[in-house]
């Protein structure tokens, strides 16, 4: 009897839904989407004004906000179809602006910029093809999401470009020691980006090919 009563009083454990299990809404004006948009504008402003402390602060704030929006969407249960598409679009626009900035201000980084551009172009084209074929499949389906390797490579790319841009700005402002440290960290981040981006590109190409085969059946 005592055992039975204790069992009845024990609270039932309800596991928290993973991000993939949470519902995806059609909402547009959500807190995470606003953070994504504002953060993107901050990053672009920071890239174009990185030679000032205000610009560097804006760039760092914008890149940090990019890491916050996804976690906030899961925590607030505000995952939306727009948010799933908006975040990678924001990353591509900011990434392109950062690569252009690096190629213009640091000629020695052109080989690195070309490598990044090639990998990111492969990912973008494969994703566009997959999205197109995914829409042609019968029935309502979940939106395509970045793979884990894709998310890691995007984060490392953002870290690489941010560190190198701020490092170059610190150098122009006369902070040689800080510039050397920042550039070293940027190169280290780039070394981590390469394998992650290579895996992600392969995954996205395979996903596009699989969806093309599915549409032909």
From TrEMBL:
Top-level division of the source organism's lineage: Bacteria
Key words, A-Z: Transferase
GO terms for MF: phosphotransferase activity, for other substituted phosphate groups
One GO BP: phospholipid biosynthetic process
Biased composition regions of type Polar residues, renumbered to the chain: 1-15
Sequence intervals crossing the membrane: none
Ranges where the record places region Disordered: 1-25
GO CC terms: membrane
Record-given protein name: CDP-alcohol phosphatidyltransferase family protein
Organism in which the protein naturally occurs: Candidatus Nanosynbacter featherlites
